[in-house]
Specification:
- The protein is about 5% helix and about 50% strand.
- It has about 290 residues and is mainly beta.
- It folds into two domains: about 110 residues, Immunoglobulins (Immunoglobulin-like), CATH 2.60.40; about 160 residues, Galactose-binding domain-like (Jelly Rolls, Sandwich), CATH 2.60.120.260.
- It has a six-stranded antiparallel sheet.
- The two termini are about 30 Å apart.
Length: about 290
C-alpha cells in the first residue's frame, strides 16, 4: 500500500530574460546591451527550515539588474528575488522565472526532485484539478437563472460562458464534510481576458444550492467583481484567487472559513455577466484544513 505520508514533488524551473522597450525617445540613438539571463546555478529552491513539509523558498541568485517575476505553476504569480511558496499536493509543477532586464533573451533549466512529508493540509475537494472525466463527475452544474449560460470543461479548466447581453449565470458545486470549529482555507487558480459587467464568487454554502436560484448565503469566501468593460478598461486577470485584486474584489477573512456545526457544506463557484466574452476560467480548486 502506498504510504500517503510521503509526497514526491518534481519541480522544473525555467529562467528567462526578456527584451524591454525603451520608454523615452531622443535624437540620439540609444544602445542597449544584452542582459544576462539566470543560469541553472543561479536559480534555487530550498526547503524552509523548521516549517511544515512542502514549504519552499524560490531564489533568483542572478546578479543581473532587473525585476524577477515568478509563475508558480499552480496558477500563482508573484514578484521578487526571493519568494516563499507552498505545494501541498503531489504533482509536477512547472515554475517559470522571468527576469526583465534592459535587453536580450536566453533560457536555462534545472530539475529539482524532493521527497517530503505531507502536512495536515489534505485537499478535501474531489476532482479539484478538473483534469479527467472522473474529476469533472464530482461536480454538479447549477443553472442560476433561465438565461443562456454554460460551463465548459477543457484542458483541466472550467470556463463559465454565456450568450452576449443575456446576464446568464451558472455555477458548479460539490458537498464537503467539515468539522465544527476547524479553520479551512479555500483557493483556486483563475483567469479571464475581460468581461462586460461581470462577477465571480465562491461560497461555502450551509444549504444545498437550488437550480434556478442564486445562492446568496452568509459564508461568502471571496469575490472578483469585474464591472465595466474589462475587455477594454482593464487588463486580463490571472493568478490565485487569494492574490487577485481589483477595486471590487476581496477575499473575505483571508479565504479562511469556520463552521458552527459539523456536517455537510457545499462549495459553490459561480459567475455571470451581461456578457462574458471569452469567459472566466478556473482550476486547481482547494479546500484545506489549516492550523
Amino acid at each position: 500500500m502506498k504510504n500517503k505520508m510521503l509526497k514526491s514533488i518534481n519541480i522544473w524551473i525555467i529562467a528567462l530574460g526578456l527584451l524591454s522597450v525603451p520608454l523615452f525617445f531622443s535624437c540620439k540613438e540609444d544602445v542597449y546591451s544584452l542582459g544576462a539571463a539566470p543560469t541553472a546555478d543561479q536559480v534555487s529552491i530550498e526547503k524552509i527550515a523548521g516549517a511544515d513539509a512542502n514549504h519552499w523558498i524560490l531564489k533568483n541568485k542572478s546578479t543581473t539588474t532587473g525585476i524577477a517575476y515568478w509563475d508558480l505553476g499552480n496558477g500563482g504569480k508573484v514578484s521578487g528575488n526571493e519568494v516563499s511558496v507552498f505545494y501541498p499536493d503531489v504533482d509536477t509543477y512547472t515554475i517559470a522565472l522571468t527576469l526583465v532586464t534592459n535587453g536580450g533573451m536566453a533560457t536555462s533549466s534545472i530539475v529539482h526532485s524532493q521527497t517530503v512529508a505531507d502536512p495536515k493540509s489534505g485537499n478535501l475537494v474531489k476532482g479539484g484539478k478538473l483534469a479527467t472525466p472522473g474529476d469533472i463527475a464530482q461536480w454538479t452544474i447549477q443553472r442560476i437563472n433561465n438565461m443562456d449560460a454554460s460551463v465548459v470543461f477543457s484542458g483541466g479548466w472550467a470556463t463559465i460562458d454565456n450568450t452576449p447581453w443575456t446576464w446568464g449565470q451558472v455555477a458548479i458545486y460539490q458537498p464537503i464534510q467539515v468539522v465544527a470549529g476547524q479553520k479551512y482555507k479555500v483557493d483556486l487558480a483563475f483567469k479571464t481576458n475581460g468581461v462586460t459587467n461581470g462577477w465571480f464568487k465562491v461560497y461555502a454554502c450551509t444549504s444545498q444550492p437550488v437550480q434556478l436560484t442564486e445562492y446568496t448565503g452568509a459564508i461568502l469566501v471571496g469575490e472578483i467583481g469585474i464591472w465595466g468593460d474589462w475587455a477594454v478598461q482593464g487588463p486580463p486577470l490571472s493568478g490565485l484567487f487569494s492574490t487577485i485584486n481589483n477595486p471590487d474584489s476581496g477575499l473575505k477573512s483571508g479565504g479562511i472559513v469556520t463552521f458552527e456545526t459539523s456536517g455537510t457544506i457545499w462549495l459553490e463557484i459561480q459567475g455571470g455577466a451581461q456578457e462574458l466574452n471569452d469567459g472566466v476560467s478556473f482550476t486547481n480548486i482547494s479546500f484545506r484544513g489549516v492550523q
